[in-house]
Design brief:
About 75% of the residues lie in helices and about 0% in strands. It is built from 4 helices and no strands. By secondary structure, it is mainly α. The radius of gyration is 31 Å and the shape is elongated.
């Protein structure tokens, strides 16, 4: 807000400057709110991981199909590449499963239930004397 010395401030100009400052402040607040939203960022990362896993699975599927076609054209004399391709497809399916079901376990921190304590079911057996010790 610069003013020339000796002139009266123009009210329209002042209002325009105030409005511009408000818009800049609103943009800054919106950026800070976006950075502070951890849940939205986590959802975005999960969606990215899911799409990446699906892409990798499609790539693995294409490689398996290509390998199967080559094996069919050769008469399938060596089963090694086909077995490797099937293993790769299984690994891709496992990755997809883990990515899709990861959200179920992320809230707990551990895959075991907390009711058994730090040692899990083994700790409950030791407390009850069912662990084989006499």
């Amino acid at each position: 807000m610069t003013r020339k010395s000796g002139t009266a401030p123009d009210s329209r100009q002042l209002r325009a400057e105030v409005e511009q400052a408000r818009e800049e402040l609103a943009d800054t607040v919106a950026e800070l709110a976006g950075k502070a939203d951890v849940k939205a960022h986590a959802r975005e990362m999960a969606a990215h991981a899911k799409s990446k896993a699906l892409f990798e699975a499609n790539e693995a599927k294409a490689r398996v199909q290509h390998t199967a076609e080559e094996a069919a054209n050769r008469g399938f004399t060596r089963p090694g590449p086909a077995i490797a391709a099937v293993g790769g497809l299984g690994a891709a399916a496992l990755v997809i499963y883990l990515v899709l079901h990861r959200q179920q376990f992320s809230g707990r921190g551990h895959w075991t239930h907390r009711r058994h304590g730090a040692l899990g079911k083994l700790g409950a057996k030791r407390k009850s004397g069912m662990c084989g010790r006499r």
